[in-house]
Amino acid sequence: MNPPPSDSAEASQEMGWTPIAEEAVRAASVLHPKEGVLPRPDRRRVLTVANQKGGVGKTTSTVNLAAALAVHGLKTLVIDLDPQGNASTALDIDHRSGTPSIYEVLIGEVSIAEAAAQSEQSPNLYCVPATIDLAGAEIELVSMANRETRLKEALSSGALDEIGVDYVFIDCPPSLGLLTVNAMVAAQEVLIPIQCEYYALEGLGQLLSNIELVQQHLNRELSVSTILLTMYDGRTKLADQVTNEVRNHFGDTVLKTVIPRSVKVSEAPGYGQTVLSYDPGSRGAMSYLDAAKEIAERGVNERSSTT
């Protein structure tokens, strides 16, 4: 015979744990963090999220890291530099043709502040969307003056001060063309997502060579500050092998936090949401939150070690 509801509730409280209760607690900790805001950087941090290999979690990582920082009180701007506009979709930002977008910013028609739209998911989260017009931008940029520095000029300190952001994340297309070069010239840091799968390091040498060329000729401040392991599946030996290989090769540049392969993370963009909004108690949401904390705290630690 089943116990009455009151007895059942008391038993659950005495046990102190149920899967649903645990997820509810996790969701509350994500949406209403008790620890307060993460440390604000002394100077604005601009990170380019790049990997010319498709399907490694560039856009997913961009929007979820930005959302995690925003939840913790840091004003964050996502620049969607991919003509597919997936970052704009995930943040539920209008990116129909004719909407003020990064394309108009690059050709000098509007400012970053005019093109930036606030996401409904957080008052601290902004996005400059990408429209289909961006698809032909690389061809147009070839004939323009200062073609490699168009985005850097648009992201001047004065322009970003109008929005007042602490972090800028630039989501690059899966290529090493002029749009990605513009992103690297405009940033101080490169964040490289690497999936924990076969061929994870394929093509990475070419990306690092391009970063080195940009460092030498266009942006001496640029550095690969962060590598994020994504799509980790703990059930496979391959995931551990790739993780160990990446850590052995890149050392402390690799975040301790690893992003698991997650259905919730994959589903969220279909609802115009980040995983932190779609399912804040999920493993994917908690992992991106931990990764964002690492990025914020590393910035403070690196700053302290240089003073």
TrEMBL record:
Short name of any one Pfam family annotated for the protein: AAA_31
Domain AAA: 45-223
SUPFAM superfamilies: P-loop containing nucleoside triphosphate hydrolases
Physiological role: May play a role in septum formation.
Family that this chain belongs to: Belongs to the ParA family.
Listed name of the protein: Chromosome segregation ATPase
Lineage, opening ranks: Bacteria, Bacillati, Actinomycetota, Actinomycetes, Pseudonocardiales
